[in-house]
Known about the structure:
It contains 22 helices and 9 strands. It has 598 residues and is of the alpha/beta class.
Amino acid sequence: MNPIPHDTSTRLPALAAGLRAVLREGYGRRDLARDLLAGVTVGIIAIPLAMALAIASGAPPQYGLYTAIVAGAIIALLGGSRYSVSGPTAAFIVLLLPITQHYGLGGLMLAGLLSGLILIAMGLMRMGALIQYIPYPVTTGFTAGIAVVIAVLQVKDFFGLTLESEASHVPQRLMDYLQAAGSFNPSDTLTGVVTLLILIYWDRLRTPIPRHLAALIGGATLAWIAHLIFPAFDPTTLGDRFSYTLANGETGQGIPPLPPHFAAPWTLPGANGQPLELNLALFQALLGPALTVALLGAIESLLCATVADGMTGKRHDPNSELIGQGAGNVIAPFFGGIPATAALARTAANVRAGARSPLAALTHAGVVLLAMLALAPVLSHVPMATLAALLLIVAWNMSEVHHVLRIVRTAPRQDVVVLLTCLGLTVVFDMVLAVGVGMVLAAFLFIHRMAALTDLGLLDPDNTPLMRDMPEDVIGYAMRGPLFFGAAQKAMSLLEGLRFDRGKCLVLLDMSNVPAIDMTGIVALQSLYDGLRERQLGLVICGVSPRIEAKLRRAGLHVETGKLAYANDAMQARLAVLEMRAARQCSASSEPAPPPNT
């Protein structure tokens, strides 16, 4: 897997970096044919998933299709990856459903718009290397937790339960399921089971038809035929659950056979069914969720692009990808699109289908649009249990249970605690709290591990090259590891615990193995220097990097004759020691004899 490139230049990131890279390399008819085939394949996969993900996020199914069409096309053209396919994703469900419940469809669209602006700002500030700073146990933990939440949310439609209210937290929702067990619908459950079996075993048939399409057709066909034979067999369908009203007053069931149309997000209904009222309080309330959506979108899109790079040997532009994702999320809400990001499963299918450029993802958006216009009446007959089964498979693949179990068995105990904490908090509370606590735990764990690397040891005069030919009244110590706030307590105790024999004139401190220092470390060195001055001892600091030496000098640790000196290597250290001994009028009797060749 190729690492994410880290661009340190000062110019603005280029738009459409993925498309530009393809055109620079050359693009022919064969590439176009492969892109069209890949786009059709991914578009077929995206149709049922887009509807299911929109429903799971609290929105009508057509809004998931709008997202795949508008955001999918814009991000493909303006993003930094040539293979990523964007649209509604399962990872967003746990974030979007509470927004929809509290602020309605209009609040969901407005939050998506704000998240897009944040993503653009992140790209302009060159935060494309963001994913490198998210600890692996944190991402694995909250991803597995999201998978559990998604699976729990599908229980209602899979078993056809009737709930009096929709709880936002998993524990309460499980209690509601138990109370509603009496409303269990065998028709929904049988439809869901058949769909699951198709999804699980279809690939063994080795047919060119994607399993998602086969499951969609299989579930809908079963429901239709069984209802003809047994009228009592009547699973809930999209048409039963959703309806629409056109501008001319015409009403219908299921999905409207219309393309995405312009509508300002704030004109859509809020939680009370009325259009949103734009005010500062609303923006303040939505800013936190929008920031979380943007961060998760950045992580998902960059991870997806990195996986695609590993599958193809190409490289993406992370900052351009963030700007493309942001542009898609800014524009899509004006055409009914909910928050979108790159979808790992659809991107992997795109690569395996032979995609060569972003035109494959653009074709995928076109396929979804054509299906919506031509097949809307047919799609209204899709059972809700079929879509629930699709999301159960998505949740299973997302959880990577075998991978999580392997980490639990083999990873260091502290990392396992971080992973399980993120997983548990995501399931019981929400992902925002899980990521926040997980990052704090991971940060403390990192500080603890880095502090353990910091050490101070006495240099052996007989076996240390630096101490060779040094006068006997010189005592040497070596500081190893980063000297920063995490290691401050340890460093201070080590420095304060130094013991000096009588007859010593100065201290030689080897800092060649100190890669970094912060203000706390500087204060520790200042305390050491002050203590040595009280004991009438000089200090020679050897091997410190020019960058760290500049920090020490700015903090007030300047060269003082007979008190403090700096040296780059062993030769300079010996000269500095001799000069300091002379300035301090140390006893000459302790000076070793000169080498024989002198």
